[in-house]
Amino acid sequence: MASPSPPMAATGGDPIEPGAGAPAFELEDQNGTARRLADAGGAPLVLFFYPKDDTPGCTKQACGFQAAEAMLAEAGATVWGVSPQGVKSKRRFADKHGLAFPLLADDDAAVCAAYGVWQEKSMYGKKYAGVVRTTYLIDATGKVARRWDKVKVGGHVDEVLAALRG
Fold it and tell me: Is 58 a catalytic residue?
């Protein structure tokens, strides 16, 4: 069953194309620390959008990024996850699974919409708005270097690492 969506009347715009500037944002992480896109300046940022904290696919994806933390750091990248649940949910998720990277609370799905990942979905014939699993690689200048749409969790971290190394 689909979980209730954050209050938002419409879905977002189109996903950001590679080469375009990444939309600026400020969101709180699981510790209540404000994170801004500009905070990642000077290094590549892997920004992954996922539907819901502590669900099987989202947990596997987040844990995959955590397991690859050293390799991502060697490639010069940092990782941030974004979903529309609140700070408390993020903290429980991070604590339960040992996630050390920032998990950003997009309570009203405004950042999800700005990045074009807040889209109409359907489950059992019922339509609702939700996050389509998407990853952005944002370069050191704040431009989108790469985008992965409708991410399949298995092997995704390897694809991101290959892009960072390539």
Answer: yes
